[in-house]
Structures are given as C-alpha cells and as structure tokens.
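To fix ideas, we give here one paired sequence and structure record:
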Amino acid sequence: MKPIKLVECPRDALQGFQTPVSTSMKIAYYQMLLKVGFDTLDCGSFVNPKAIPQMADTAEVIQGLDCSETTTKLLTIVANLRGAEEAVNYQKIHYLGYPFSVSENFQVRNTGKTIEESVKILKSIQELAAAHQKELVVYLSMGFGNPYGDPWSTNIIKSWVEKLATLGVKIISLSDTVGTAQTEDVEHLFKTLIPAYPELEFGAHFHSHPEQWYPKINAAYLAGCKRFDGTIKGHGGCPMAHDELVGNIPMEKLISFITSQKELPPSLDVLAFESAYNFSHKIFIYNYSK
C-alpha cells in the first residue's frame, strides 16, 4: 500500500500575506518545518517580485536552509520558463510546481498566458526539469469547478490529465482553487483517474471554508488519494476567492484525519510539528478565527 504524503505549503500561506516577513524569520520557520518529516515543503516561488513581493527572497531562503538532516523535499512554484531556469540551479530543490488551469480566464489572470501558450511553456519546463534531475508537479487549478464561466466538467479534467501524461508529467495535484469542490466530483475524479493512470501520482490541493474541509478530504482519501497539501492553521488560499474564510486545509486537521485512519507517516514527528505550529504565531497576525 502506498504511504500517505503530506505537503506543507508555507509559500501558499505567505504569498498573499500583506505584512512583510523577513528572510531570517522565513528560514527559521521553514527550518522547524523541515524537522517535522513532511514529504514535501512548498517553500517559495520564482515569480516576478512585483506580482508577489513576499516571495522576492525565495533564492535567499533556499540558500539559507540546511537540508542535510531531513528527508523532506523542497518544492518551488514557477510560472514561466525564466522562473524554471532559475529554480533548476538550486540543488536543494527537488520539485518545480507549475500552476496550470483548465480555465482560460484564470490562466490569464494567474500567469498572463493563454492555455495554448501555457501548454508550450509547460512542455519546455518539463524538458528543463528532466534535464536537471528535477520533478515537475502540475497543479491543475479549477480541478473541481470553474466560477469564471468557462466550460467545465469531469470529462474536461480527464482530457487534460491525458494530455499532461503524454507530455511526461508524473505528478498532478487537482486544485480546488476557490473552494467550490463538490464531494461527488472529488470522489468521481479520483476514483476514475487513479486506476486509469497507475503510473501517475495524484494529489489534492483543496481550498475550503474551515467548516467544510472534512467532506473534501474524506472523499479524496476514500477514493484512493494519497497526497495532500495543507498549511498550518489553514492560512493562505486564493486571493480571488472573495471570502476571507476560504483558505488552505489546516495541516493540523490533516494530521488528525490521517492519524484517525492509522496511516500517519512514520517519519512525521508530532512534537516537532507542535513546535512549528507554535512558532507560526510569531509570523501570522490573526484578524479572524479559523
């Protein structure tokens, strides 16, 4: 049986956080997260600093991290070939994450490129990653619905998974970008895709209202998903959700859920997680309770 993989995403938590967080504070926080034993740490993005000022120091953060005593792999987001060309220079980085949307409107909003242009970029990034012994993770945004009026169906998602597979992509994380996923779609997609593509690894990156996380995670888990993204306290989420309560799945809830299923990864140190959880209070300012 394949083990559960937990992906902690402080990059997603911080990218829309308006209060500047110092490079040294990020390094200290991420260093604590590296001690927890997550499979992957989504720790930054090589994108235009004017677009996401909080991520402008990603290179310095990567350079400052000590990865010598962790099995956790680092992931950084890239939105274009230039960002990928920078990211592959860092030996510490294992994964490049590329946001690809089935929504034309959202893809243009998110990356400034059409879907057709993005497919060409994705192919180039995949080739670049392979040439530098990196792995590409494609975040298939609008994976469970599209509020922007573009055509959406589970068949459209399946079609794009097939196209991504032919490009050599091995890891696809279905993303509930604005927190609208319906459990029946979650169940149907994972139950259909996982057995149809045994050579691929499918993940779940949900955004959710704090009271609605469980049905989505449970549906994905029961359908065979083994890779889950989250952030401590559920910080972050898509700025376009237009609802301050729609954030990431709280990692503490994910850990509790996986523990209840008796599938907590043996590498995960609960005490180290508690320390990182407590340290996060030094960074995030709470304007409301999650």
The first helix runs from residue 10 to 14.
